[in-house]
C-alpha cells in the first residue's frame, strides 16, 4: 500500500479522498490554487502546495506542475478525483513515465472510452446494445446533416469528448441542426479542447441507468449494482438513487453483465461507470466514465463499501476485496446535489460568501459530502457545488421521507441555491410514484419552478420579531455598558406614555412594502401583517438567528439572517428574502434605465447578435455569454432599438456590468 498520495483535485471530492486515506493511515498531499489557499481540502491534508493562479488552466489542469509537486513531496500515487485531469490520457501517461501510480484505469481505456464515437464502435464489436446513431470521424456539416436525416428527427447532438451535458443539443427539425451543431462545437471546444461531435436518435422518455463496475489487475471484474440518474436538467444529474426502482431483477443482471463486458473489452482497471439509456425493456450503451462518479455515495450506502478504499487497494496491485457472488445490497439511497445556482433564472450559477451554512446532523441515515465551510466563498472559477446530501433507509419511501426532512433542515444563506427546487422534486407525486425519465424536470417544470409568490405572513412575522429582538438585545447591551443593571430602561418592552405599546416595521417584499405591527402583550405579541387579523406570538426564543415561536397556535421554527438591510428567512426549507424599508436605499436601487441589460454572472462574451441601431422584438437573442463552461443567451425584455453594445466577442465581463442598452419606447 502507498505511504503518501497526492490528490489532484479540490472541493468535496478532495476532502472525500482525504477521509478514506486518513482512515487507512496514508499520508495526503493537497494541491491548490491561489484562490483555494484556505480551502477545506487544504486544511484537511497533511501537506499542501500552491500550484498557480485561480483559473483552472493555470493551476488544476497543469499536469506538469502537479507531477513535479508529487515528486517533491514523495507521493507514490496521484488520485485525480473527478473532473480536471481524471480522464486525461496524456496526464495518466505522464504519471507512468514519472514512475508515479495514476489511481485510475489504463491509458488506452481512458483514451478509447473518452471518445464517445470510438467507444461506441468498440461496444458494437463487443455486442453491447447501442442507440442508433452516427459515430464516424467525418465532421463536416454535409455529413452530419445527411446522417441526421438517416437517423430521423429528433436527434441528439453530443460532444464526442467529455460529459456533464456540455456540448449537447436536442434537434427536433432539420432547420435547427446548423445552429445546434455550431453551438455544440463551441461549447465542446471550450470545455474539452475537442469540438468533434456524434449523433444519436433522441429517445422520447428514457431512464438513465448506470452500472458501477470495478476491475483489478488480476483479471477480476464485478458490478456493484446500479444507480438511476434520470432526474436531470441540461443533461446534468440533479438527484440520483440506488438501486434503480422498478427494474426486473433479470434486467439488472443483464445490464450488470453487459457493463462488465464493456469494461473488460478495454482491459479496464479500477472504478468505472457504464451508462445506459433504458426504455420499454431495452437498454442502450451511452458512454463509460473512466473515474469515480460524483454519485458514488449512493452505491456505498446500499453496499456498505468504501469505493475510494477499493480504488487505493486496486491501484496498489491488490485483488478486488469481493467477488460478484459475495456482493449484496440493502435498502435504498438518494443523493441530491446542492448547488449555488438560481433555478428561477435558468439555473445560472451564483457566487458569493456562505454567510450561514448549517447542514442537517449526520448519522447512519444522513451523510453530507462537502468541501466548503461557513464563511467560505463560492467563486466564478470553479464548479458551484456546495455539497452532496446523501440519505439511506430500508426502502425507497422511507429514504425519500428522510431526503425531504434533510433538505428542509439544510440552511444556506449568502448565495442563491437550488434547495427549494430539490425539495419540490422530492415532494412531487410523480417522483414518489417512480414516474421518472430524463424529461421529468421539463415535464413538471410548472410544479417544480412556480413563479415567485408574495412572502407569507409567517415569514413576515418571524422577520419582524427577529428585527425587534435583535435591536432590543443591541440596545440592552449598550445600556448595560453604561447603566445600572436595575434600570427600567433595560426592559425594552415598548412601553409608551398614554398609548398602547407596539412596534411598527415596514419590509420590502420584491418591490412591495409590507407593513408589520407587533403589539406587546405580557406573554408575547400580537402580530398584524398588512392590516389583517392579529396572530398571537407566544413562547418566543431567539438565539444566533434561530427563532422559535408559537404563531397563531402553530409552532414555527425559523432562521433569520440579517445582512445590513437584507433579511433571509428560512422555514422548513422555504427561503424568503426581504429588505428593511429604507427610503434612501430604495431610491438608490431604482436608479438606471430599464433597458440596460446586465451580465447575470461573470463570463466571456461568445457572440454579439445585434448592432447599434437595430430594432428588436421582445425575446430576441442579443448576446451569447459563456460562464461556467455553459452558454447563456441574453434576450430582449421588450421591443426596442439597440442604442449601445458595450462588449465584443472574446471580452471578459464581470457580474452586473451593462452589456447592451435597449431603448424601449414609452407605452
TrEMBL record:
| PANTHER family documented for this protein | CARBOXYLASE:PYRUVATE/ACETYL-COA/PROPIONYL-COA CARBOXYLASE (PTHR18866), METHYLCROTONOYL-COA CARBOXYLASE SUBUNIT ALPHA, MITOCHONDRIAL-RELATED (PTHR18866:SF33)
Species source reads Azospirillum cavernae
Instruction: Give the matching CDD domains.
Output: biotinyl_domain
For this protein's source organism, the top of the classification is: Bacteria, Pseudomonadati, Pseudomonadota, Alphaproteobacteria, Rhodospirillales
Single annotated GO MF: ligase activity
**What UniProt keywords apply to this chain's record, in alphabetical order?**
ATP-binding, Biotin, Ligase, Nucleotide-binding, Transit peptide
The identity of this protein, by name, is Acetyl/propionyl/methylcrotonyl-CoA carboxylase subunit alpha
Residue ranges occupied by any Biotin carboxylation domain in the UniProt entry: 1-446
Q: Does the keyword Repressor apply?
A: no
Q: Which Gene3D superfamilies match?
A: 2.40.50.100, 3.30.700.40, ATP-grasp fold, B domain
